[in-house]
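re: ur question from yesterday

yeah so i grabbed the chain u mentioned. its 250 aa long if i counted rite. heres the sequnce exactly as i have it in my notes:
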Amino acid sequence: MIFNAPPAVVGHRGSGSGDVTTPDGATVAENTLPSIFAALEAGADWVEIDVTRTADDDLVLRHDPTGADGGFLVEATAAASGLPRLVEVFDALPPGVPVDVDVKTVLEDAVDAPARRTGALLAPVLRREAARRPLLVTSFDPSLLTFLREEVPEVPVGLLTWLRFPLWHGVPAAAGLGFQAVGVHTASCGFEQPDTRLRPLDHVVDVAHKADLEVLVWCPKPEAAVDYAKAGVDALVVNDVPGTAAALTG
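ran it thru and got these structure tokens back, copy pasting raw so excuse formatting
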């Protein structure tokens, strides 16, 4: 199992997307160490971070392909971006803290030399960290996940789905590719955004489990957490860690 005692509460981009106010009144930005530590202090079982590569073949934490100046990160150095480097974040985290690395591949991965592609840069970092903490790699890019499954087989991988690559295609695709998890956003499927073309979520989760896939749902509202838990999902990737934890406990 990837997640013990599901559903695990996973802090989305640390403690939430955008700038988040912590209980002590501090404002922290997503995908930063303060955001990660805020999520852990609020009771998150895991934290999720977004990772992309830069022009100097480094990996930084960022959800969007552009930096604060609007330029593409793949055309800037890690130092110039001012963003946290993945290796530095891992070094700052205590061993044992579980991390979901959500990888944002870049267009240039299609044509750059194999050694420069995002997966090749990420593999040695994962190989080192796998001995220090539970890991999961998630991505919309099945080619990256397939590469990592071969290069770092000890790290489970999960295929993310979205509106035009929906969950009912993603479950058989992830199973057929030998992945360990599948993820869905509430905008694609769920109690908050029901889709009459899809089987009930608990049925989808049941099929995924029979295919040895764990199911992540991201961005559910705290008040919907219990419904997702009853449907059998394995992890909730949330923007409100304390609210979700309280809802599940209640």
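noticed a couple things. The two ends are 25 Å apart (CA to CA). also The chain is about 30% helix and 20% strand.
anyway ttyl
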